[in-house]
Amino acid sequence: MFHLLINEVNLKKKRRKFARVKAVFDAAGVEYTLHVTREKHDVDEVTAEVTSAKGNSLIVLGGDGTLHEVLNSFVDFENNSLGIIPLGTGNDFAAAARIPSNVRKAARLIVENAPRAIDYVEFENGLRSLNAFGMGIDVDVLERAYAGKYLKRSKYLRALLVSLVKFKSHDFTVRYNGAEERHFGLIAAVGNGRQFGGGIKMFPEAKIDDGYLNLIMVDFISKISMIGAFIKLMLGKVNCVKQAKTVRVKEVEFIPESDDYTLQADGELYKNIPLKARIVENKLKFYTV
Length: 289
Hints:
Number of strands: 15
Largest sheet: 15 strands, mixed
Oligomer: single chain
Distance between the termini: 20 Å
Number of helices: 9
Shape: globular
């Protein structure tokens, strides 16, 4: 059975898109239940209840933040599945999963196809991430983008431009594939999906079902060189930035120099959690191409 999950704000502001989704499910003659959430804990409660049973498909009408909350409350991966119809701001994981931005097409993909197994990330403390996580300038970008009342896709780009000018590199150590490296850099980030921040292509070669994570470490870049590096980044050519190093890994650990740090996971910010994570292969059943 399908369970459609949407927050109250999206239901009101994007009612026409929701009507198109509903029409697809009605025309397909499939059974579904609508869950309208108002508070963050509502998402956790609905997800836990739906995925504690068997044979359910929980469909998020939202974005990366809601997907992140759902993944972290998911109970029975063997007998339930997850999907998304993009109604968020960035929709970065939907892009990685090749979900159409047109909500009618996204809904048809779900009702006409079976889910398939994909990967996700699990931290040492149990936190899960579906798209990307990291520390450094990505956190600074998100903190700037989240400032203010309204969050639009353009705010990510504006925040990135400001961060590129104002952010100062930090010392950190990265452990992966039996190696340990110390960096003075802008960012250490890991992608299961290809992009973050509403389309910033940090991990252009990442795949959501290949059993690997894509680690990128970018060392200090002078202000003069920053413009060229930024252009390459936006074109998905981060591998052409000489200060960047990319590696495929199964697990990774970040060790910040400071004891007070912030991690972002799928756009959600976390303070001072253990930064050791691994890929969980082919466990999540997800509606994708």
